[in-house]
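Lab manual, section 2.4: Encoding a predicted structure.

Procedure: take the sequence of the chain (207 residues), apply the prediction step described in section 2.3, and record the output as structure tokens. A sample record is shown.
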Amino acid sequence: MNNTNVDSFLTEGCGRCAKFRTPACKALHWNAPLVALRATLLASGLTEEMKWGFPCYTLGGKNVAMLLALKDHCGVSFFRGAELKAAEGLLESAGENSQTSKQFRFRSLQEVQAQRGVLVTLLEEALKLERGGARKRVATPKMAMPDELGALLRADATVRAAWEALTPGRRRSHLLHVSGAKQVETRVRRAEGCVAFVLEGRGFNER
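Recorded output:
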């Protein structure tokens, strides 16, 4: 994973797949709109960091927004997007399991330029929201334990204790990873792959 700096992300990619440092990398494909989005994010006064292979923008150490480069679009993900009033009809869910984060998606530099004013408004509201401190409680649906992961936890007391010590969010990341596989063999393989992360106190997405 490339957490070097944002300039490296824009010229080499996130490092999360084999396309890193190749012309096929998504970060390189969306380079022009990403550069424009980055300029607007920096102008907002947020602090720029690298997290999980992507440029992340924070306020007082709290995550506010993140640059995205995906297959069909690039854009800005707001960590508290579900709470932004100005975002109605503009932002899209990051996925069916996403409760609070929302994405402002773009597919060209022209779209970024046309929507810059809207993005500035969203950033201003996101900053105000973060400075306010209080977070809106969003009900998170309880997830069932996949049989394959449950079997590993029951079989090893050390792993089970480490699992119980994880934060709810970290446990949820493993549940999502394992249960997302359709085939039993794949779920078993994924469950086994989670064990090392669990023992180290990490969520599945923490590298």
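Check your result against the sample. The longest helix spans residues 116-132.
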